[in-house]
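Why does residue order matter? Because the sequence determines the fold. Keep that principle in mind as you read this record.
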Amino acid sequence: MIDAYLTEEELFELDILEKMSNSNGRQAPDNWRDWLLQLLPQYFPSDNFAPHHVEFWEWVDSIEPDEKPRPFIAIWGRGGGKSTNAEAACVYLLDKKK
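Structure:
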């Protein structure tokens, strides 16, 4: 098993850490929908989420620290946002300290 992590420089290149740092004095949104739209607009430009994306993000948001999450199994077609959503979920969980 290989663990891969983005370096701090890579996250800054994506402009994520700067937005999460709240240097502008604003708090990052609490809900996943607004969080995606405000912090990752280049990947989530509209609030037009497919039902399977909503199901995934509700599952992500249900994850709590020190609790084993229930498995989430999804079969999405090519171009369905599998990697984009999974990678954004990792950053979301980091930001929410989950």
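Helices lie at 8-13, 16-20, 32-39, 51-62, 82-95.
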